[in-house]
Amino acid sequence: MERRHQVFSVDLLERYATKGRGAIxxxxxxxxxIVLGTSKGWVIRHDFGVGDSYDIDLSVGRPGEQSVHxxxxxxxxxxxxATVIGxxxxxxxxxxAKWTKPRILSKLKGLVVNAVAWNRQHITEASxxxxxxGTDNGQLYEMAVDVKDKMxxxxxxxxxxxxxxxxxxxxxxxxASVHNxxxxxxxxxxxxxLYSFTGIGSLEAVFASYVDRTxxxxxxxxxxxxSELHFFIKQRRAVHFAWLSGAGIYHxxxxxxxxxxxxxxxxxxxxxxxxxxxxxxxEGVEGVKPSSLAVSEFHFLLLxxxxxxxxxxxxxQIVEELYFDQTPDAVSRGIFGLCSDASxxxxxxxxxxxxxxxxxxxxxxxxxxxxxxxxxxxxxxxNCRDALQRDQVYLVQAEAAFAAKEFxxxxxxxxKINYVLSFEEISLKFISIGEQDxxxxxxxxxxxxxxxxxxxxxxxxxxxxxxxxxDKINRLLLEDxxxxxxxxxxxxxxxxxxxxxxxxxxxxxxxxxxxxxxxxYGRVDELVFFASLKEQYEIVxxxxxxxxxxxxxxxxxxxxxxxxELQYKFAPDLIMLDAYxxxxxxxxxKSLNPRKLIPAMMRYSSEPHAKxxxxxxxxxxxxxxxxxxxxxxxxxxxxxxxxxxxxxESALLRFLECKVGKGQPGGPEFFYxxxxxxxxxxxxxxxxxCVHIYSMMSMHEEAVALALQVDPELAMAEADKxxxxxxxxxKLWLMIAKHVIEQEKGTKRENIRKAIAFLxxxxxxxxxxxxxxxxxxxxxxxxFKEAICxxxxxxxxxxxxxxxxxxxxxxxxxxxxxxISALAQRYTVIDWDEQCGVCRRKILNVGGDYRMTRGYxxxxxxxxFYVFPxxxxxxxxxLIAHVTRCTNQAQAEYILDLQKQLTLLCAESKNVSNxxxxxxxxxxxxxxxxxxxxxxxxxxxxxxxxxxxxIQEISLPFIPPEEAEESESWEIKPHxxxxxxxxxxxx
Length: 987
Hints:
By secondary structure, the chain is of the alpha+beta class. Helices cover 41% and strands 19% of the residues. The protein contains 33 helices and 30 strands. The strands form eight sheets. A four-stranded antiparallel beta sheet has the order 1-28-27-26, with no helix packed on it. A hairpin with a 2-residue loop joins strand 7 (79-86) and strand 8. Helix 12 (524-533) runs antiparallel to helix 13, helix 20 runs parallel beside helix 22 and helix 21 (674-684) runs antiparallel to helix 22 (687-696). The longest helix has 40 residues, at 785-824. It starts with 7 loop residues before the first strand and ends in an 18-residue tail after the last helix. This is Vacuolar sorting protein 18.
């Protein structure tokens, strides 16, 4: 197999690794730690991670020559177990990386430990957890060590081979956590057998269970000096195993944790088992058996003589041979063995004095070719590193399917190729052999594999696939003319598949091109389907309406993304097709403007065949008016017109009487045009409705006149509606009376009796004298004698009532005059020391200021004053000043103006008196009294301390604006001068 460079390479790691402590007899590795056992009983530890090494002498205190038989180290490089064999027998030791002295395992005295299985999932630096050790006499022991105790916790026998007691030469253990504990998987090998143990619980319990059940094992013929068992570990889990047996390398995949069903329980956790015969990589007739084995992810490293043959585990072919740079003295003895470090991903080989490191460089890079040669395509794809490698895998699969004439399968594989073959080459392959179905499959799969950025190619391929679909549909129809009518499964499946394709590719297909294709092939249903996908609902609706499928059209209109304009555009056609379903759809559609549906409803209502179904339109209009509270006059007028055309006038009257607008504050009682309603009702001869409209328009005379033509009772009811205008009401009743008298055709006396009975219905509004003019001139007065007498008696009673009311009014006037006279004599008593409420001086003060006495009645030398019923008294001047100050500006100006006028009149009166013109003193006195009366009303209407003025003063500030300056002068302001002093003010 051609390679750019070798996958495995060998380097000398340490030439004289034993430091003169003897020859290397065994080696173990883990986590960049190498532990060597020597022929002189020494254990030498090399820690390449920290660059340190030390050695321990296990032969101390033991007579004779000692040699380390086996050494084992855990995957973490902390724990070590070594077995020493000498003339005195065998001893097994345990040591830790941090210990300077080993600990002998006394319970294993005399036993040779050949194999150790570590608990990789649970082992730590401080504790080994469960360890299984296999001896040369076919026994398995369990041990655990805690470092802090510096001794083993226990060593106990787990299992012993009794049927065929052979030495255990290899051990591996794996654990898995399950819901009810820990499951152990143990594999152990002898020279001829591979044993499997599994169970849940402790190791002791697992092996104890095999007392009652058969041990599961695999036996292979042949002999080999050293039987080995190896697990390949990936991410701390065993992935596959290999057993170096006498017959060959027995290997397989490990599936731990999966429940298996087998006659022997669930021990069968091995899958894809195979046996690699040694003859496949040996040049001689008989296969040369390897002396040691190591396992990588994809290869076996077989130590044969002084070289390592690298065999591919999958293809079972030798891919490389590795040679070692040995010293001349070590060549004769050859390489002793191989070991692997799963943690570091390295392999090691050793001879008597040197350590060699085998490195791995990307061993899986060509595995895709190996799997491809074996036709394991899934595994080949899983190991491909780039798209070009995957293309080659797909190409092999496609060509194999194409050669086998499995064209649809080949198309699926061809569609995944991006670089090896071009799109055109693959398409021509199918076109040249006339495989249209395979070509369509190729195009569809190619669409799935294209990225979204390749928009142009996606559109072209989608269009081509559309045409291939249509061609296939036509070919099926040509092959079977009854495919449309019969249950043709292939045809129906293809139609379903084609529609699914249109749904998936609706965003990439060119709308115009696709619709032309569908139309050219006559696929109307698919055209409608695609138009619906592209939200071209107008095309869809046209189709359904032409087909008479109103329900489907209405379902389309109910979609949330359909324009509301299409509702109005197709409303005339839909209501003509199915009025009931259309109206039901309108009533469930929100945001629908009923005004825009009026043309459709009017057209439908005007059709002759719709006269018996107009109630559907009425139902919708009633829904708009009563449920939606629609206020559009057009809607109300249309509903009224439809009511007017019905023979039964009751619905029309109910609509006219319903105050639909009263739900809103201040709203109108109706929204229809009353003039239009009146014309319509007159045209349709709906007289009762006309009467109602006249009444509503306050045309009561017309309403009564029309009602008299229909029903006098209706006219009476209309006349009673007028309550605020007595004259109009009387006029209306006179119209009714005249009509009743003129229409009466009985004898004269019977006419008169009915007329008198009619008078009683008016509740006294009409008298006999009001209706007498309506009777003929030749009517005799004797016929009305009773009515006239009754009327005269009523008038007499009214006259008596008026007389009584006049007498009561006269007595009331006399009482008022007496009260006025009594008011003139009212007085109050004032104490001599009574004080003015404003200036706090005595009211009866003599020698006061008389400047304000002008216009007032002066009583001796005292100043004029006011006394209120509450007891407060004020000087006239003080009261005027107080009220002017406390009232508002307009009232104050009014009071001052009256005071000024009063002063001027007093001055004029004085001048007239001094001039001797005293013939007409009342001319000047009368206006003075009038102004003084007005001034009294302005300032003395109520007490300023007990009335409204005191209440209004609550909102006034304590300090008026004119005293603000004085108030500021009283403020104490601090001074920052350092010589500030406190001064006491004498009061």
